[in-house]
Design a protein that fits this description.
DNA-binding, HTH gntR-type domain-containing protein, Arc Repressor Mutant, subunit A, single chain, binds pyridoxal-5'-phosphate, 479 residues, alpha/beta
């Protein structure tokens, strides 16, 4: 009974997990049954005891088994042999002080609507670039018929078109039962957090990262640790040190046109990351919300390089704006099932309406042409940004980007303070300083897609003015 087929290409601990789950599902193990001791399991599977411990810990955190002091490891007696209780800790959440809103953002939101303001802070495409399409002309009755087609994992026609697109764009093979439709990628992250992590667990993310600003991790008591990046992406040695020091449970990366740096992880680094995650048997979440906005051929997705090791997230927000709020998770079927159960427990059902709209948008005959036009426009805007950048001083350093929405500009001189960043607000130039994504204060994210050619020129004129003042402050401080 406790033996593995040697042909499977997934990590051994996952094979052990899968086998135990299968025994529970098929009734070979029943609620309350004892599992053999770790030592016996290790001997029978012919693996290290640590591999067995890892598999059992994962099964405990997923609720399939429980470990009791003195009586060993038992199959959980909860419904279907596991507890699907979501882990939102409301008591803890409500007992905490409301985190203070970042003062910079309070001020930024105050002036955001002012027509004089140049908003390069907002992380989405401007309205005029979002591809247009006709809304579906459904009668109410027809919509109700579509609603009846909904399944636990989402609206099947939308799931199918997502699978087709993933295959076409990324060579990623996924069946519809491996795709869960969510209300945006943020909900996808929230569900993963609820199902895969516990309070006190550590997660490795890029430093800087968009996730740094999300309250969902803090609320769940999950600790985020940033791993420094270089031009190839997350640094592997630094990640390994973190894994060893903090017992990381999950790695979340945004490898393509990363938010905020715009960086794309090289193929070499992708392979190294996968090798490291296999070594420590850690799952990777690939947050892939920008890859549709690519100017050049992209390296293969992490998911296509390691289908069982990687959980893939996508979203339509970056192409159709966040009002549609449709995202998806692609993962092994057993995890998708768990996530779907957690989603239902939290009553996160998604109305069929935005799903029908998303389906219509993606199957609209002109979608591909519109997307290509959008990419051409973005390319043009990027080129305009670079050529304007040539004409001003080189106080700011930045890397070339080949897609996505962001350019990351690093200040070359002394440390910047909040007061320095306040100057941008005074000039009504809204940018996203690095302290929103990290402990760093020396860089900023600029959404170049939001500027016309003329605004791009204005941006650099204002930047030049601000840089001179900040540089002048340095002079005052140094003397
Ligand atoms: C890297 C990244 N992941 C996830 C999200 C959330 O996406 P959604 O709007 O689909 O919830 C964003 C939004 O900006 C993002 O930049």
């Amino acid at each position: 009974m406790w033996k593995l087929e040697s042909t499977k290409k997934i990590p051994v601990y996952q094979q052990i997990m899968e086998q135990i789950i299968e025994y529970i599902q098929k009734g070979q193990l029943n609620p309350g049954d004892h599992l053999p001791s770790e030592r016996k399991l290790a001997a029978s599977y012919q693996v290290n005891r640590s591999t067995v411990v890892h598999a059992l810990e994962e099964l405990v955190s997923l609720g399939w088994i429980i470990r009791q002091q003195g009586s060993g490891t038992l199959v959980n007696e909860g419904r279907w042999g596991r507890s699907a209780t979501p882990r939102m800790n409301w008591r803890q959440l409500l007992s905490r002080e409301t985190p203070q809103t970042e003062p910079y953002l309070l001020e930024l939101h105050e002036i955001q609507k002012d027509t004089q303001t140049l908003d390069l802070y907002t992380g989405e495409l401007p309205l005029d670039l979002i591809p247009d399409f006709r809304l579906p002309a459904y009668t109410w009755e027809e919509l109700l018929i579509e609603e009846k087609k909904q399944r636990d994992l989402g609206y099947p026609p939308l799931q199918r078109i997502i699978c087709e697109r993933l295959y076409r764009e990324q060579g990623l093979e996924a069946a519809t039962n491996q795709v869960l439709i969510t209300s945006g990628a943020q909900q996808a992250l929230f569900l993963l957090l609820q199902v895969m992590l516990e309070a006190g667990d550590s997660v490795a993310i890029e430093d800087p990262s968009f996730l740094y600003s999300l309250p969902i991790f803090d609320t769940a008591g999950v600790r985020l640790y940033g791993v420094a990046m270089d031009e190839e992406g997350m640094q592997i040695e630094a990640l390994e040190q973190l894994i060893l020091a903090k017992r990381v449970k999950l790695i979340i990366v945004n490898p393509t046109f990363q938010n905020p740096t715009g960086n794309t992880m090289t193929l070499k680094r992708r392979k190294q990351l996968i090798a490291l995650s296999e070594k420590y048997q850690l799952p990777i979440v690939e947050d892939d919300v920008f890859s549709e906005l690519n100017f050049l051929q992209l390296p293969p997705s992490l998911k296509s390089l390691a289908p069982h090791q990687v959980i893939h997230l996508g979203s339509l927000s970056k192409i159709f704006g966040s009002s549609i709020k449709i995202g998806w998770i692609v993962a092994d079927q057993s995890l998708i099932q768990r996530l779907s159960e957690a989603k239902q427990m939290m009553d996160f059902s998604i109305s069929v309406f935005p799903q029908v709209v998303a389906y219509t948008a993606l199957t609209d005959q002109s979608f591909e042409t519109n997307r290509q036009e959008l990419i051409d426009t973005l390319k043009h805007k990027r080129d305009c940004f670079y050529s304007c950048a040539q004409s001003v001083s080189s106080d700011w350093q930045f890397e070339e980007i080949d897609g996505g929405l962001y350019v990351w500009l690093k200040w070359r001189h002394q440390k910047l303070t909040r007061k320095d960043w306040g100057l941008f607000l005074q000039e009504k130039l809204l940018v996203a300083p690095s302290f929103l994504f990290s402990n760093d204060t020396m860089a900023m994210r600029v959404n170049y897609s939001r500027m016309t050619e003329e605004e791009c020129y204005i941006f650099f004129v204002k930047l030049q003015k601000i840089s001179e003042i900040i540089g002048g402050r340095k002079y005052e401080r140094d003397n």
